[in-house]
Design goal:
The complex is a heterodimer. Chain A is mainly alpha-helical. Chain A has 13 helices and no strands. The radius of gyration of chain A is 24 Å and the shape is flat. Chain A starts with a helix and ends in a 7-residue tail after the last helix. Chain B folds into 2 domains: about 250 residues, MetI-like fold (Orthogonal Bundle); about 45 residues, no CATH class. In chain B, about 65% of the residues lie in helices and about 0% in strands. In chain B, helix 5 runs parallel beside helix 9. Chain B is flat and about 115 Å long. Chain B starts with 19 loop residues before the first helix and ends in a 6-residue tail after the last helix. Classes of the chains: A mainly alpha, B mainly alpha. At the A-B interface, helix 1, helix 5, helix 6, helix 11 and helix 12 of A face helix 6, helix 7, helix 12, helix 13 and helix 14 of B.
Chain lengths: ~300, ~350
């Protein structure tokens, strides 16, 4: 690894850290700009009880002091404070509970999308302008234009309500199948199109013709020469894919009643549980920012032709 | 042949008046084509783009025109008449069915306008709600893209023209906003702005639009201009260095002329295309937020909120979800395909 690579990686890490800091700061100040404060929705409360509650959660301090305390707790202990509505529980514990289900959901969806997308894209490229290619392109175009919540709901109608193949409750066994399919369809379609176009690009290159001319077998060309290079653009999609799956899971978990982080997030917004909203936003943001960073860095390292700016 | 070497060797025949045959060579066979006409010609040849364009026009026109003559309003609960108890026979009507008083009228030989898609759980005509929802979604998409366009052009051209430190600072800010997870920030800002804006706009014209829509616009104005401004800055930086700009400067053209005649025509197509592709994006975001309950204020419908409301009665009335779902997918799909067609037709870099 040369010094240019290292410089790029350092710069990229610095940008990611800066972004996370911006997210924390924006989230903190935006949430504190809400009029009324978090306890306004509670039952009628005496002035002194309100004061006591505010003192307990450190809300009587000046805003900047609160901000630095919040920042320090996150950086040093990864602590987002206590939840307001789920008494006696810490935000981070509640989030970790939800994250277990969501991570399973998201990871399986990402792996399925990646494998099936690359296979379909390669098939479409190798059968260019044949009927298989056309079917794949039409179907993927439709998937790309359909919002995830509509996809999820259509699957819900078809397989849960009409056919009754799967339970509608995401907490039960087999309940995760449909949410996983819903989440993986869009990235799958996107990866298929990406792989197809880059595969077509690579198949037109001179070194493929050279390999063919010296008698290398068809499959060796596809897997040994073409596949490797045509997968490079797919790496760039890792970051956006994770972002899509994270935001998609917010509605998909709502539709299929999956007890994950996305569902938690929506219920915090409805309940106005401020520390939970802040904690969830920040953790999901960190996830997305880190994945973006990793895919950017991987991309530059894997393909030495890419210029550094 | 050449007997007189010192003569002028003029062929006298060349000075005869041109015959009609010869004149025919000089006639302009067809008017010279402009860049715009050329692009339109390519666009019309592209059948997919043309069909998508027709679909968009039909949907837009019907969203504008149908509410004018439709006998039912989007918030009119048909079972509710002042001074009498609520007639629940109007609630949850299946498509093309009628409520009890309407049925009596039909039996008496009168004509009643049909409920094409039935009614919802509050007895509101569902067809007109879908039409209004389409109208709202299209309007949100359009205005959000305009906001993005204006801010993007302003910031992008400032960064591109002034350059230097200003450019550096602006581009670093753009980098950071670009790497923010946009959807999360949209949800956060929309949920907070909703509470903050409500009391501020109370009683003004803005209250009619609804705090949620305004916060959606604010969010778009804050977050989504970055890619547009990057694009425009890049365009300006590359166009500024072109030889024809240098040539224009050398012949004494003023900068206003250069901007009007060279810079704008050359980057307008790219700008229009990315604005066109921004519209489905905005519609998508609006429906997503509406689905989470952060979109338009009730009783105003949007396609996302219609879908979200239908989720409650999904086992009994799946059609109420399928209809807005189809409309939304149709709009987004045809806008995307049309945008792609525009790009193919007007992006000069692709017509090698």
């Amino acid at each position: 690894m040369n010094s240019k690579n290292i410089m790029y990686i350092l710069k990229r890490i610095a940008l990611a850290l800066l972004t996370v800091w911006v997210v924390i700061t924006v989230t903190f100040f935006v949430m504190h700009a809400v009029p009324g404060g978090p306890f306004l929705g509670e039952k009628a409360m005496s002035e002194s009880a309100m004061k006591a509650l505010e003192a307990k959660y450190g809300m009587d301090q000046p805003l900047m002091t609160q901000y630095f305390t919040y920042l320090k707790d996150i950086v040093t202990r990864f602590d987002f404070g206590p939840s307001l509505k789920q008494r006696g529980r810490m935000v981070i514990d509640v989030i970790m509970d939800g994250l277990k289900t969501s991570a399973k959901l998201g990871l399986i969806a990402a792996v399925i999308a990646l494998i099936s997308g690359v296979v379909l894209g390669a098939v479409a490229a190798l059968r260019r302008n044949k009927i298989v290619d056309k079917i794949i392109m039409v179907v993927t175009t439709a998937f790309v234009s359909m919002p995830s919540f509509i996809m999820g709901v259509l699957l819900l109608i078809a397989f849960v309500i009409k056919l009754k193949w799967f339970p509608g409750n995401g907490a039960s066994a087999g309940g995760l199948v449909l949410p996983i399919i819903t989440l993986s369809l869009y990235p799958m379609a996107y990866i298929t199109r990406l792989t197809r176009s880059s595969m077509l690009d690579v198949l037109g290159q001179d070194y493929i013709r050279t390999a063919r001319a010296k008698g290398v077998s068809k499959w060796k060309i596809i897997f040994g020469h073409a596949m490797k290079n045509s997968l490079i653009p797919v790496i760039t999609y890792f970051g956006p894919m994770i972002a899509y799956i994270v935001t998609g899971s917010i509605v998909v978990e709502q539709i299929f009643a999956v007890p994950g982080l996305g569902r938690l997030f929506v219920s915090c917004i409805i309940n106005r549980d401020y520390p939970m909203i802040m904690g969830t936003t920040i953790i999901l943001a960190i996830l997305i920012v880190v994945m973006n960073m990793v895919s950017d860095i991987l991309y530059k390292i894997v393909d030495p032709r890419i210029k550094f700016d | 042949m050449n007997k007189k070497p010192f003569s002028l060797q003029v062929d006298v025949d060349a000075f005869l008046p041109a015959s009609d045959d010869e004149k025919a060579y000089m006639v302009q066979m067809r008017p010279s084509t402009t860049f715009f006409k050329d692009g339109v010609k390519r666009l019309i040849k592209n059948k997919v783009a043309l069909v998508s364009f027709i679909v968009i026009v039909v949907i837009t026109l019907s969203a504008i025109i149908i509410p004018v003559f439709w006998p039912y309003g989007y918030e009119q609960m048909l079972g509710v008449t002042p001074g009498s108890p609520v007639d629940s026979s109007y609630n949850n009507l299946a498509p093309m069915k009628y409520g009890s008083t309407e049925q009596a009228k039909i039996d008496a030989g009168e004509k009643v306008f049909p409920h094409l898609f039935g009614t919802d759980s509050s007895g509101r005509d569902y067809f007109i709600r879908v039409v209004y929802g389409t109208r709202i979604s299209l309007a949100v998409g359009f205005f959000a893209s305009i906001i993005v366009l204006i801010i993007g052009i302003l910031v992008g051209s400032i960064a591109g023209y002034i350059g230097g430190k200003v450019d550096l600072v602006i581009m670093r800010i753009v980098d950071i906003i670009y790497s923010l997870p946009d959807m999360l920030m949209v949800i956060l800002l929309a949920s907070v702005l909703r509470m903050t804006l409500q009391p501020v706009i109370e009683g003004t014209v803005l209250a009619k639009i609804g705090s949620n829509i305004i916060s959606l616009f604010i969010v778009f104005g804050l977050l989504y201009w970055v890619s547009m401004s990057r694009l425009i800055r890049g365009q300006i930086l590359s166009l500024r260095e072109q030889e024809y700009v240098l040539a224009a400067q050398a012949t004494g053209a003023k900068s206003g002329w250069i901007i009007r005649k060279h810079l704008i025509p050359n980057c307008i197509s790219v700008v229009i295309i990315s604005t066109a592709l921004q519209i489905p994006n905005a519609i998508f975001t609006e429906s997503y937020l509406s689905f989470l309950g952060l979109g338009v204020n009730a009783p105003m419908p949007s396609l996302g909120s219609l879908a979200s409301d239908a989720l409650n009665g999904i086992t009994s009335y799946p059609s109420r979800l399928v209809i807005p779902a189809i409309v939304i997918s149709l709009i987004v799909l045809s806008l995307n395909l049309f945008g792609d067609g525009l790009r193919d037709a007007f992006d000069p870099k692709l017509n090698a």
